[in-house]
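#lab-general

N.A. 3:47 PM
ok so I finally got the sequence cleaned up, no stray characters, all 306 residues accounted for. can someone with queue access submit it? mine expired

B.Y. 3:52 PM
send it over

N.A. 3:53 PM
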Amino acid sequence: MSQMPTAVSIREVGPRDGLQNEEPVPAEAKVRLIDALSRTGVRRIEAVSFVHPKAIPQMADADEVWQRAARVDGVRYSALVPNTRGAQRALAAGFTEVEVVVSASDTHNRRNVNRSTDESLDDIAELIDLLHGAGATAEVIVATSFGCPYEGDVDPLRVAGIVDRVVRDGADRVAFGDTTGMGTPRRVRELLTAVRDRNAHVPVLLHFHNTRGAALANLLTALELGITEFDASVGGLGGCPYAPGASGNLATEEAVHMLHDMGIDTGIDLDALIEAAELAERLLNKKLPSGVLRAGPRTRLTPLPT
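B.Y. 4:20 PM
back already:
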């Protein structure tokens, strides 16, 4: 087995990616969740997205949520945007870390933003310039990197070509989204190999869904390949509104539980994280899919009957 990293950076995406696939909740509930997560020791939180309210009504109150959320020192907060208008709103709200998504699959991209992948890449080039001009960083997330629910397999070389383009256009970092949980360890290895052969210097983050139960296996594979940045969602919240059956991000507490047992530091207090997941369940009034939330950490022992 390859040398494992000693530390991993997790970006908590429950407040954005998680909640956008649930029934809308009040701004107050979103603020409570962000604030609870900010106190867990997590160093990065994807707080909101600036999208048209008709497209994603769950994020219609992004400005209000961000204004009311407590900003904890040492936590980096980011926003997702679909286009230049969204980027302008994010900058106006004070964000200095902004993400934009493009799908490797043309069909998924059209379903998501009503344009081809190439058309989105042209827009992203301008968006990167806008963000850099305002002193913000630009992360390009490549959705459907491991497969598309409409087209099936996605060639890793197609994803690598998209990375070539966005790196030329100035992207500060790239992320690869397993939008519908089609990823497997083999596919993770093939994708990272294809990308690194051409852009070994670019910071990479991976975003796994557990739709088919492979998220932790994929995380372990990526760790073996030296990846140290991952997205995860409290309680396993989330999915993709434009991908049928795409329920369930990798649960943050499941990732942290495994990493800590491997001696890999995340900076996150697992007990506080589980409390945040319990809060998310109460706010949404539904059971979340996280196994660690259900069973507790492996250190939680069952008392013997007296």
